[in-house]
Specification:
Length: 77
C-alpha cells in the first residue's frame, strides 16, 4: 500500500496515511472526511542510494545477507 499525504480542509492539518486507492480517509485531528490528496515530492536518487548503502551495511554487520546478490555475499570457510 502506498503512503499518501493529505490536507484537511476543516482544521488545516497536513498528515500522511498508508491507504489503498479506494479507501476513504478521515483527518486524525478532527475526524473530517473533507481531505484532499497532496502531490508528494519523490526521493532524490542520491539520498535513496545513501540510505540503501547504510541499510545494507547494517544488515551485513548483523549477518543478514538476504538482500545481497549471491556474488556479493561473503564466502564461507
Amino acid at each position: 500500500m502506498p503512503l499518501y499525504e493529505f490536507h484537511c480542509k476543516e482544521c488545516n492539518c497536513d498528515f500522511e496515511l498508508l491507504v489503498r486507492g479506494s479507501t476513504a480517509c478521515v483527518c486524525p485531528e478532527c475526524g473530517s472526511a473533507e481531505v484532499e490528496k497532496l502531490v508528494s515530492l519523490p526521493a532524490s536518487p542520491g539520498k535513496t542510494q545513501a540510505m540503501l548503502t547504510r541499510a545494507r551495511g547494517q544488515a551485513a554487520r548483523e549477518g543478514h545477507f538476504s538482500n545481497y546478490a549471491p556474488s556479493e555475499r561473503p564466502r564461507r570457510k
